[in-house]
Design goal:
Blueprint (H helix, E strand, L loop, with lengths): L1 H24 L3 E6 L8 H12 L4 E6 L2 H5 L2 H4 L4 E4 L8 H12 L3 E4 L11 H7 L2 E11 L1 E2 L14 E10 L6 E7 L12 E9 L2 E6 L5 H4 L2 H14 L2 H13 L5 E2 L16 E2 L4 H5 L2 E2 L4 E8 L6 E6 L5 E5 L15 E7 L9 E9 L4 E5 L2 E6 L2 E6 L9 E7 L10 E6 L5 E5 L4 E5 L2 E5 L2 E5 L6 E6 L4 E6 L5 E5 L6 E3 L16 E2 L26 E5 L13 E6 L4 E10 L2 E13 L6 E6 L5 E5 L13 H4 L22 E7 L15 H7 L5 H11 L1
Length: 699
């Protein structure tokens, strides 16, 4: 009897382990895409097409363009389920080859595409791994023929016609290889005399290789049938167990549900407007959202604790303060009293989630930013800047003063935002085309669409950098350099010369757009924009990675720009260019197939991690107001100059934290009550947030 009981216990234990580990591995497929910096076989252009095509299927790509970046670190490579190679890289080092070969033979999937069969000519073993090597080509329009439709790597694959290069191969390795598609002899003068192996699979060690010769340019890469071919190949290459765990993940996540509704603008002039997607819970939304391998997305707060978060700031205790606005964009009140709040969100038990919410101030009407100064909080609340302060320690504002007035009220998405404490002990911020018209210190001022600074007591105001349209982004690096972004197709500016340097009444260039590429890169085709399609048309924020909570390759070198209309948070790589900077498009840092995911702000927090405010709303567009000719129906304009839309949501909002796997523990948790000596010591922090907080408290 006892052996039977022990056997039952053992079986139950094994079942429990199976459930635990099976659940842990049920997750999206992660593919490392190795491309190159070339317009020939333009992987920079084609990778986003594939990411968009397969993103809703939870097949996520991380993209690199150097062999060392993909194959130099075996530990990094082994974090991926598969490696996709589409590039013209001529050589591979012995160490890189060792890592690639070891990765595949250890069970990793390998998906060489098209020109990949030309790569690494200095390593004979590479041809054998792929199963053949490119020899020559002509060009033509043709349909590769499926010859083994029952192979699992052909699941859902249909033949498709496309213009492509007509590859012919040599150095064929037929060992453990199975041909799935062939290119048949087309006509006289073809470079083949018998059917040419076109798509094949092979095994090596514990790993699987899927190769296709398709893919010269966008005439192939834009086709859904090609996406399906690569999807089937990727899922076969990762192995049966990993595929099964992926399928378990897909079956277990909440489905996206839709219905046809009125009042969905169709500026893109699709054959019909996109349907309305129903919202997801925060947990379910995360199942549709991609962060880079090596980072993890964590939820800090969601509705009902926070709704429509528009601005984030932390006090010297490390507590998060949030400006939330359910009145945005059109519920402007004449007396400026509304339904909006400033909240304090705290994690009191250290589990990384908000468990205490305190309303610091209420009755506000569309606050657009906040920052700390003089023992209180400055809030942008057009036409005024308010100074709010708690004097009795109950975390409730009992002082409310007007610090400054004159900010434009004509358009709620063109007012002041991005308030932050500057290195010069002024408060810096941005303003859009609603602008400023007022008097400060007896001096009349008028400006708009750019960067300003204001004394903490409101006694002085200066316009610092002129941008060319609605300005929504501002950030500093640790050297004090100033960067910004605009809503309309200018995702990154460098503010090189302050406008004040030109003297009274004179003007000169004070900022320049430095982004080398304006495009953004979603992982769903369901994107709704009003213009400049597929580019940053709602670029918000410009936060530089200024802490040790990021990899070395990020620190002071990467800026994060929100792209809510693309359901993403993008990144740009900053590098010196003469006396200024250039910003190279680094694709999406976060991206979601959930059409409600709408990052509007990202900030480096006191823990050194990146925090993201997700407005979480299906309707993001403000203006122009839809018309029958332009967007498919006639809408009306509201008091905030935004189109009135019953599909705008006022019940959701999320705040996430993106954590690097190797991020060190924050050395400072709080500076509340710190002595002058402790504040001076904090000026050596590896996090710019604490250095600036210490400076603010010292002065």
């Amino acid at each position: 009897m006892i052996p039977f009981v022990n056997m039952r216990r053992s079986l139950l234990f094994l079942l429990l382990l199976s459930l635990l580990f099976g659940s842990a591995s049920a997750k999206p497929i992660r593919v490392l895409f190795l491309g190159h910096e070339s317009e020939h076989h333009n992987s920079n252009k084609f990778y986003p097409m594939l990411a968009k095509g397969l993103g809703r299927d939870a097949i996520y790509f991380d993209y690199v363009t150097t062999v060392e970046g993909a194959l130099g670190d075996a530990a990094y490579l082994n974090k991926f389920d598969a490696l996709l190679l589409y590039a013209n890289h001529g050589k591979i080092t012995p160490g890189q080859w060792k890592n690639l070969k070891g990765y595949v033979e250890g069970g990793g999937g390998f998906v060489p595409v098209h020109c990949a069969s030309w790569c690494f000519g200095n390593e004979p073993g590479f041809d054998q791994l792929v199963g053949g090597r490119f020899a020559s080509h002509k060009t033509g329009t043709f349909t590769a023929k499926v010859v083994d439709s029952k192979h699992p790597a052909m699941a859902g694959v249909k033949e498709f016609e496309a213009w492509d290069e007509t590859y012919k191969h040599r150095n064929h390795n037929k060992k453990d290889r199975q041909v799935l598609m062939v290119r048949e002899v087309a006509e006289k003068g073809d470079n083949i005399t018998e059917p040419e192996p076109w798509t094949w699979v092979r095994t090596q060690g514990k790993g699987r290789v899927f190769y296709t010769a398709s893919g010269h340019d966008e005439r192939v890469w834009k086709q859904p049938a090609f996406h399906q071919l690569l999807k089937a190949g990727i899922l076969w290459s990762v192995g049966d167990a990993r595929k099964q765990s992926y399928e378990k993940f897909i079956a277990g996540r909440a489905p996206l549900k839709y219905e046809k509704r009125d009042n969905i603008p169709n500026y893109e002039k699709r054959s019909e407007p996109l349907p309305y997607q129903f919202p997801l819970s925060a947990k379910d939304s995360m199942d549709y959202t991609q962060a880079p391998v090596g980072f993890r997305l964590e939820l800090f707060a969601s509705e009902p604790d926070v709704i429509n978060p528009i601005g984030l700031a932390w006090d010297e205790r490390g507590r998060l303060w949030v400006a939330e606005t359910v009145d945005y964009p059109n519920e402007m009140t004449p007396n400026r009293v509304g339904n909006d709040k400033i909240k304090i969100l705290e994690d009191t038990d250290g589990d990384g989630k908000c468990d205490k919410v305190t309303v610091f101030a209420e009755g506000l009407n569309i606050p657009t930013s906040l920052t700390f100064s003089r023992g209180g909080v400055i809030v942008a609340h057009v036409p005024d800047f308010l100074f709010l302060k708690d004097t009795d320690g109950d975390d409730k504002a009992d002082v409310r003063e007007v610090l400054n007035t004159g900010w434009g009220t004509g358009d709620t998405h063109a007012g002041p935002s991005n308030l932050r404490y500057g290195f010069d002990n002024w408060i810096w911020g941005t303003v859009g085309y609603s602008g400023y018209r007022g008097e400060v210190g007896g001096k009349k001022l008028g400006f708009g669409s750019g960067v300003f600074r204001i004394k903490p007591d409101g006694s002085q105001l200066e316009f610092m950098h002129q941008f060319n349209n609605n300005t929504w982004g501002l950030g500093f690096n640790s050297s004090g350099d100033v960067f910004g972004s605009t809503a309309n197709n200018n995702p990154s500016f460098f503010c090189g010369i302050p406008a004040t340097a030109y003297g009274s009444g004179k003007r000169g260039m004070s900022a320049r757009m430095i982004a080398t590429d304006r495009s953004f890169h979603p992982i769903t085709p369901n994107i709704r924009q009003v213009d400049a399609f597929n580019n940053y048309t709602a670029g918000a924020g410009q936060t530089v990675a200024t802490s040790a909570g990021f990899p070395e390759s990020y620190r002071e070198k990467v800026a994060f720009i929100s792209g809510p209309t693309g359901h993403l948070l993008g990144k740009y790589h900053l590098s010196r260019a003469g006396s200024g900077y250039k910003a190279k498009n680094g694709y999406a840092f976060l991206a979601s197939a959930d059409e409600w995911f709408s990052p509007v702000a990202a900030e480096v927090g006191p823990d050194g991690n990146l925090w993201v405010a997700d407005w979480y709303n299906f309707i993001i567009q403000h203006n122009p107001t839809p018309s029958l000719a332009r967007a498919g129906y006639d809408a009306k304009r509201g008091k905030g100059n935004a189109h009135i839309n019953p599909n705008r949501d006022r019940g959701h909002g999320r705040i996430y934290r993106v954590v690097w796997d190797k991020a060190p523990e924050a050395k400072i948790k709080s500076l509340a009550g710190a002595s002058d000596a402790e504040l001076v010591a904090a000026m050596d922090s590896d996090n710019l947030f604490w250095r600036q907080t210490a400076q603010r408290l010292l002065v």
